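#lab-general

N.A. 3:47 PM
ok so I finally got the sequence cleaned up, no stray characters, all 314 residues accounted for. can someone with queue access submit it? mine expired

B.Y. 3:52 PM
send it over

N.A. 3:53 PM
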Amino acid sequence: MSSEEKTLEFNDIFVMGVRGEYEFLKAYVDIWKKNPEIWEPMGFSRPVNKILVICDPLMLFDHAVKKVAKEYNLAFVSGSPAYVLNSYPTLEVTKQKTLVFTDYPRSREDIKALLSLVGFAEKNMNLFLISLAEPDISKDVIVMFDDTMVIPPPGVSERKEIISRLLRPFIQTKRIFPDKFDYLVMITDGFKTYELVTFVKRIIAKSLYDNREVTQELIDSVYSQYLSGSPRITIESFDGDLLEQLYQMAVDENEQGVFELIKKLNDELPLSLTDQQLLARYPFLLIGSRKDRLALFFRARSIVRRLKGRQGGE
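B.Y. 4:20 PM
back already:
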């Protein structure tokens, strides 16, 4: 296998994270290119050729779009809406089947350019427009597209496919066993495609460096380090009153468990499965610094104990 083939195969891993949306996109493009009139008996005057995609940048949807363009041998144009509009002035009248892929609009100029490109695709059936957008995109923009795909993080089947592809040599050499593979799939729930791939890369690197099989201890260690390196929401960017109420709720439900979890987070220790389940229930424990967590915990504990004392004396 050539180095180019290996690279293309690796890029396909990112497509696995959006498998369902990729298949829908292929169906739309296939009909648009080969048999656009098939929509007419269904009551539609024109084929679908304008798709809005709302997803996190770490889902790397561009890999799916590029794969479709390559499979259908389409001319491919990409960039910010303003860049595409200004750099390809003949798009409005092109006679070549062209897939236009625009990045997230970041300015008023981009929004105006995007609306112009939508107008081009409306009039010129040789264009297929796919545009990325943030969740807060205006409804007035959304309704101008034929379909809007809202893409969630990879589900269980997608994570299994991605992880098994990345760990194929480990699986073949029994460096990871089925129970640990299933554990890895479970704890990565909610990971975006890029996060999942980089997390598994760290598992691989740790296993190779330590020259040992992938154990739960190894997974937990990497997971804890990965978690501690994730972007944090600061106290200043969060509603302080709400955060105090959340801490009081957590302390009331499981004072000792929450305290032990805070100590592990502050000391950056590996998290057990029980710890991870507790963190999934109380994700706000990740907010702020070590000092913030302890201060909020002790304040909440004092309030909860005082209230319980009053209730007991009544």
